[in-house]
Amino acid sequence: MTSGQPLKSQPLPRNRDLEQQVREPTLTIAQVSERTGLSHDTLRYYEKAGLIERVGRSTGNQRRYQAADLAWLEFLLRLRETGMSIADMQRFAALRAAGNVSVADRLTMLRAHRAELTDRIRTLRRNAAVLDHKIDHYEQLLLDGHEHQHEQEQPGSDELT
Q1: At what angle do helices 86-97 and 103-144 cross, to 10 degrees?
Q2: pTM higher than the cut 0.90
Q3: 1, 7, 102, 156 from 4: Cα distances, Å
Q4: Which of 20, 93, 130, 137 sits at a 20 to 30 Å CA gap from 106?
Q5: Which of 129, 125, 139 is nearest to 159 (CA)?
Q6: How far is it, in rounded angstroms, from Cα 81 to Cα 146?
Q7: What would the pLDDT profile of 87-125 be if each residue is shown by its tens digit?
């Protein structure tokens, strides 16, 4: 050891979770709730239901969300907002947790969901067109001064007779 060369230290074993927490700022459940609009109870339910993987904890046992958790929650919100059931979201989350071996199954699920969404959008557009027709008709009645005139409609009909 007196050779004049500096001592070489051996690297310490790594704790990846700890390293990631040190490098990446974490969010509290309140912060995630504020950013996503999900209540604390819903966030806890999503974890319990397997929609999100077990969230890391602080030394005080408080949930600490990573950026990846937030991104996944935002995707889950998109699925929910587009009408995907909780059961299908759970199935998708389980496939995601399985890793790359489930990519084909996830793609199939998303394609099917997208097709359902496209059908619903088409129906909503047709319904919006009927509403637009009615709005135009009522606006014209007001402009013409016929707001007290009884219009003849067939019950349940989309068109005026």
Answers
A1: 150
A2: no
A3: 7, 9, 56, 96
A4: 20
A5: 129
A6: 41
A7: 999 999 999 999 999 999 999 999 999 999 999 999 999
